[in-house]
Amino acid sequence: MTIPLESTGPTMKDYSSRNICTWCDGCGDYGIWTAVKRTLVEMKISPHEALLCYDVGCHGNMSDKLGGYRMHGLHGRVIPFAAGAKLANPKLKVMAFGGDGASFSEGIGHLVHAIRSHYPIVFVLHNNGNYGLTTGQASALTVKNQPMNTSPNGIPEETLNSMDFIFSLEPTFVARTFSGDIAQMTYVLKEALKHRGFAFIDILQACPTYNRFATHRMLLEKCADLEAEGHNPADFKKARELAVNTAKRISTGILFRREDIPNFYERLVPRQGKTTTPVEEVEKFDVTELMREFV
Ligand SMILES: Cc1ncc(C[n+]2csc(CCOP(=O)(O)OP(=O)(O)O)c2C)c(N)n1
Q1: Which of 1, 73, 136, 207 is placed for a possible disulfide with 149 were both Cys, Cβ 3.0 to 4.6 Å?
Q2: Tens digits of per-residue pLDDT, 243-292?
Q3: Is any atom of ligand 1 closer than 6 Å to the C-beta of 59?
Q4: pTM of the complete model
Q5: Top-tier CATH class for 23-266
Q6: Residue with CA at minimum distance from ligand 1 atom 11
Q7: Is residue 1 exposed (0-12), middle (13-18) or buried (19+ Cβ within 10 Å)?
Q8: 139 CB under 6 A from ligand 1?
Q9: Can you give the residue ranges of every domain in the chain?
């Protein structure tokens, strides 16, 4: 007899895949992969209730290393299709995953508009400080002067201050964590999934092959959990300060959160008072003939 997932809740096995992970030894993606599965299981979100959307990159290869509904899109374009899926079916829990290359270069425009639109999705930045899949080019977040494979003398551009940039857009949920701390990542992911609108999570990720400066050791030594210090996540000014000042220590945990702003879906006038979702409304129509035109 098959016991429906809802009656007992999903297990880690329900989110596992037969595909073997191909990340380098020591890659932070292993930790993030574990935390994502653990989050969904602990929140009793069954695989059919979630959609995991992946950008292109090393992290994007997670898309076939998990069970459940997943999408693997174009480089830098994960946010539009994640947001579209969520707006079509708001009952789904939707998470989007992107690298720092994709999110702060190719897809930076989408990030800007996702924050100002306040789409009700979780965005997870796999921040390994470089373009990993294409073997270590500098990204906009690579530290200036840091030698990389294609820029052995360091890059001439300034490093983008990603957190200052994010805070300048008046986000409603910002967290930072790191790939070596599965418990903290799980906590932050759970809180992000409960957030009303767009949740931005910066996961600092070790990349032992191409970014020999962002090591597990450095992250372990520098990261400090704000929770233990009684940080008030409603304090925007303090949160921004903590997020930006990373020279001596890197503050992790939930930096900023507010729940009083309606999300994009809640603001849509034609959706006011509707008890059905757009996908449920469309399901009533037989589109078989229409689809034939496109095959
Ligand atoms: C529009 C576009 N630009 C560039 C590429 C080539 N490309 C594929 S993966 C990748 C690197 C991805 O780096 P990042 O987004 O930081 O993710 P990571 O591999 O580090 O997880 C690049 C440059 C592409 N596929 N499409």
Answers
A1: 136
A2: 999 999 999 999 999 999 999 999 999 999 999 999 999 999 998 898 89
A3: yes
A4: 0.95
A5: alpha beta
A6: 131
A7: exposed
A8: yes
A9: 23-266
